[in-house]
Amino acid sequence: MAGLGWVLTLFYSPFAFITISRAMEKMDPTLEEAARVSGASPMRTVFDVTLPLMAPSILAGGLLVFIAAGSCFGIPAIVGMPGNIEVMTTRIVTYIYMGDTAGVRDATALAASLMFLANILLFGMTWMVGKKDYTTISGKSTRPNIVELGKWKWPCFCLVGAYSMISIIIPLGSIVLTSLIITLSKPIALDNLGFDAWIPVITSSQYMESVWNSVVYAVIAACIGTLISIFIAYLAVKTRIKGRSLPDLLVVIGGSTPSIVIALALIITFSGNFGLNLYSTMWIMVVAYLVKYMTMSVRTIAASLSQVHISLEEAALNSGASWLRCCKDIIMPLIAPSIVAGWFLIFMPSFYELTMSLLLYGSDTKTIGVLLYELQTYADTQNASVLSVIILLIVLIGNLILNKVSKGNVGI
C-alpha cells in the first residue's frame, strides 16, 4: 500500500507543482514586501502572508492530484494488484470484464460514486475559497519576489536533487538501461549492452501496428479537437450570444470527469443500446480522447483570443472584408501559436492514454498504452522497456515543440 501511494505521489506531484508555481508567479509581491518592512521574518511572512494567499491554488492543486490519483487505473493495476491491493478503478474494470448485466450495473454504481465524490470535493473547495477574497493580481506589471535562501541554499539544493534523482533520473534511467541490456540474466557490462532488444520490437508488425494506431487516433483527435476548440473559444470570448458559455462548461465537465467514468459512459451509450454501435472501433476511442483532453486546448486558444483586440476585427470588417476573410487573415495568424499548442495538448495525452483505451479497444484497435500494459502484466520487462523509451522519445519531442511554440508557458 505504501509503495502504491509513493508511486502515485511521484507521478502526480507535478500537477500540484504547476498549479501552485503559476499562481506564485502572478502573485503581487508588494504584500510580502510590506510584511518584511513591518519587521516580519522571512518564515513569518511565508506562513502569515504567502501561504494564506496561495490557499486557493494549494487547494486546487491538491484536489487535482486527488481526483487524478483516485481515477488512475494503470499504476494501481501494475503496482497494487500483484499484492492484492484493489482500488475503485481496478474494481470497476474487473466488473466490466465480467461481461454480464450485473457487472455493468456494479461498475456503473462505483463509477457514479467516484464521480459524486469528485464533485463534492470540487464544490467544497469552491465554497471555502468563495468565503474570502484572495485577489492579488492588479493591472500593474509585477514580478515574483525572489527570496534569498542564505544558509538554506545547499540543503534545498540537496533536497531538490534527491527528489529529481528518485522521481526522474533513476526510474527513467532504469527503463533506458533495461531496453539496452542484451541478456537480463547477466551482469550489467559494456559487452552486455546494445540494441538487440529493439530489433524484435521495431520489426514486429503487432507492436508497430499498436504504435501506428496510437499515432493515428491521437492525430485525428487532435485535429478534430482543435477545430472544435477554436469554435468554442471564439464563441465564448468574441461573441455575446446567449448561452455562449455552455459549450465551454461542457468541455470543462468532460475534462474533470475521471477517465474510467468516461469510458464506461461511452460503453453504455455506444454499444448498440441506443441504435449506434461504435464499441471496439477507432471512433469511440477518438470520442473518449476528445471528451477528456479538449479542456486545455480550449483554455489555451481562448486565452490567446482574449488578447486580440476587437478593433482589429472592426477595422477589417469596415474595410469591406468578410467575416471569414477577417478570421483567415487577421485572427488565425495572431493565434496560430496557441492553435499549434492546443493541437499538441490533445495529441500527447491521447497518444499514451491507457485507462479509457483499455476498456474501449478491439482486436484491431489496440494502442501502445494497452500493449505496454499487457507486456508489463505478462512480465515481458524488456519489450515493455523498449516501448516505454519509444513513448518517452515521442513525448519529449512533442514537449520540446510545445514549449517552443508556447514560449515555455505550456507543457505536458
From TrEMBL:
Keyword Aminoacyl-tRNA synthetase carried by entry: no
A family per Pfam: BPD_transp_1
Gene3D superfamilies: MetI-like
Transmembrane segments: 6-24, 45-78, 107-130, 156-182, 215-237, 249-268, 330-352, 384-402
Residue ranges occupied by any ABC transmembrane type-1 domain in the UniProt entry: 1-127, 211-402
Membrane topology of this protein: Multi-pass membrane protein
Keyword Mitochondrion: no
GO process annotations (BP): transmembrane transport
Keywords annotated in UniProt: Cell inner membrane, Cell membrane, Membrane, Transmembrane, Transmembrane helix, Transport
Compartment(s): Cell inner membrane; Cell membrane
CDD domains, per database record: TM_PBP2 (cd06261)
Family note: Belongs to the binding-protein-dependent transport system permease family.
Entry-linked PANTHER family: INNER MEMBRANE ABC TRANSPORTER PERMEASE PROTEIN YDCV (PTHR43357:SF4)
Protein name: ABC transporter permease protein
